[in-house]
Amino acid sequence: MLLADVEEIAISEASSDAGRPSPPRHVHRRHVESFYVLEGELALTVGDHQLRAGSGSWAQVPPGVPHSCSFPEPVRFLNLHTPSCGFGAFLLALDDAGDDEVAAARADFDQQPVD
C-alpha cells in the first residue's frame, strides 16, 4: 500500500507471508532504500552480508549496493525510497497494470537487476 509519494520520498507499507518468493537482487543508482520492520522478521541480503531484521529494526541500503529480501516468517514493514525516483508509479503499475505497463514503469524506476 502506497502511503506517500512525492519527489523527495516514497513510502509504502508491505506485508508478506512466510516463504513468499524474494524479489530479484537489484541495485538503485540514484536513491537510498530503507526498511522499517513493524511486525515479524525480514531477511535482507545487502552486498555480501545477510542479516535478519526483527520488529523495530531499521535498515538502509545506500545507492549502488546490490540487495534483496526474503520472508522467513510473516512480516509487515515500511519500505522507503529517498528520493522517490518513480517508486510510487512502479508500485501502482505492479498492482493495476498489465505486463507491458509494468515493464514501462520498471524502466522509469531507478532499479536495475544484478546477476
What would your notes on this structure say?
The protein has helices at about 85-95, 100-110, and strands at about 1-5, 10-15, 25, 30-45, 50-55, 60, 65-70, 75-80, 110-115. It is α+β, with helices and mostly antiparallel strands. The chain has one domain: Jelly Rolls (Sandwich). The strands form two sheets. Strands 1, 2, 4, 5, 6, 7 and 8 form a seven-stranded antiparallel beta sheet that branches. It has a two-stranded antiparallel ribbon with strand order 3-9. A hairpin with a 2-residue loop joins strand 4 and strand 5. Helix 1 runs antiparallel to helix 2 (about 100-110). The radius of gyration is 13 Å and the shape is globular. The mean pLDDT is about 90.
Q: By helix and strand content, what is the structural category?
A: alpha+beta
Give me the CATH architecture, please: Sandwich
Topology, number of strands: 9
Tell me the Rg in angstroms: 13 Å
**Would you list the SSEs in sequence order as H and E?**
EEEEEEEEHHE
Low-confidence stretches: none
Instruction: Provide the domain count.
Output: 1
| CATH overall fold name | Jelly Rolls
Provide a short characterization of the protein structure:
17% of the residues lie in helices and 47% in strands. With 115 residues, the chain is α+β, with helices and mostly antiparallel strands.
Task: Please render the helix and strand layout as text.
Elements: E1 2-6, E2 9-16, E3 26-27, E4 32-46, E5 49-54, E6 58-61, E7 67-70, E8 75-82, H1 87-96, H2 99-108, E9 112-113
Antiparallel strand pairs: 1-2, 2-8, 3-9, 4-5, 4-6, 4-7, 4-8
Helix pairs in contact: 1-2
